[in-house]
Amino acid sequence: MKDRVRFLRIGGWIGILASVSMTIIELFRNEFFRVIPSVLFSVVAPFLILGISRNPEHYKKILTGFASLILFQQILGAFLSFNEVLMLIWYPVFPLTYFFLLGYRRALLWNAAALVAIVIGYVLFPVLNHIPSVSLPIFLSSVLAYSVAVVLAWYHYRVIHTYQSRLKREAVVDTLTGALLRKAGLQQLSRLMTQVDRIPDMELSVALLDIDDFKRINDQDGHQSGDRVLVRVAESIHRSIRKGDYFIRLGGEEFLLLLPSQSFNHAHSLSETLRQRIEQEVKRSDGTCVTVSIGLTQYRPGERLSSLLHRADHLMYAAKKFGKNKICWKESEAGDPFPADSPAVPLSENA
């Protein structure tokens, strides 16, 4: 976004200077009514540039405002100045501007609308101004140049968008498991913690999972088998969590689940369903079951992220200590809402 804003400022002021130049040319030729499109851009564009500096949160709306201003100026020019070849010089520039401001999908529609408006303007110009417009061959050549610019810009920005999307995904999502990577996941956790601090009634539970005896799986079955286990565990997790939950790979065989906006009882029920599903669905190459140990806790408003993760980590290792393939949990307040025969192991507040 910062790069686009910087180039928008530079390009915007260049456009303003060009509009002022066109205004001066038309004034010297005593074509006062044709000054309207260039004056319009010269007056409005500085306010949009100022707005994007002062209100960066309205970034996308201001970009659309720029595109709307250019489209309106383009249509006015078609209706008022179609007897001037000078106006046609700018035609190949407009498609690039729309793609830069709007992205390749929206820009394609805006350019199509602009082309329709240009054709209508060419047809109506002699009727409205009582003078002939530019010759048909010149007009068709300009429209062809405009269309070629649209196609080239569309292809260029589509390719860039595809690679940008891929790079962004690879920067935040683990390609093996489909989980968020550690940095992106912890940033999301920080946002959820801030949200809970603002909304006291909102609850946030976190579950830290570690695959039991994973080093043994890698050593005995090989790393490819270990990767297959990671993939199968991730598939089980994806099937178990809700749409609004977050699945993070902290590293190696350790995963973190963020379970916002649900009670601790529900978070425990989901964790138990997940524990059972992994035990039933994920097998080693020799057919033995793969299990996980889970540390489940709840965010306490105002606490630090490191404190929350330390508690979850302590609970997860406690689950391993109690025999693995278990859930060890502790709520934000003392209490044991689960029956004694639960596979979970509640820890006291002093644990």
How is the secondary structure organized here?
Blueprint: H1 2-28, H2 36-54, H3 59-80, H4 85-88, H5 93-102, H6 104-129, H7 136-172, H8 182-198, E1 204-211, H9 214-221, H10 223-240, E2 246-251, E3 254-260, H11 264-281, E4 292-298, H12 305-321, E5 327-330, E6 344-346
Parallel strand pairs: 4-5, 5-6
Antiparallel strand pairs: 1-3, 1-4, 2-3
Helix pairs in contact: 1-2, 2-3, 3-5, 3-6, 5-6, 5-7, 6-7, 9-10, 10-11
> What is the H-and-E element order?
HHHHHHHHEHHEEHEHEE
Q: Please count the beta strands (DSSP E, at least 2 residues each).
A: 6
Uncertain regions: pLDDT < 50 for 5+ in a row? 333-342
Average pLDDT score: 86
Distance N terminus to C terminus? 47 Å
Describe the strand arrangement of the main beta sheet, using strand numbers. Answer: 2-3-1-4-5-6
Strand content: 5-15%
- Overall domain count: 2
Defining key terms:
alpha/beta; about 350 residues
Explained architecture:
The protein is of the alpha/beta class. The chain has two domains: 171 residues, no CATH class; 165 residues, Alpha-Beta Plaits. 64% of the residues lie in helices and 10% in strands. It contains twelve helices and six strands. It has a six-stranded mixed beta sheet, with helices on both faces. Strand 4, helix 12 and strand 5 form a beta-alpha-beta unit. It is elongated and about 90 Å long. About 3% of the residues have low confidence.
Quick structural overview:
This protein is of the alpha/beta class and 351 residues long. It has 12 helices and 6 strands.
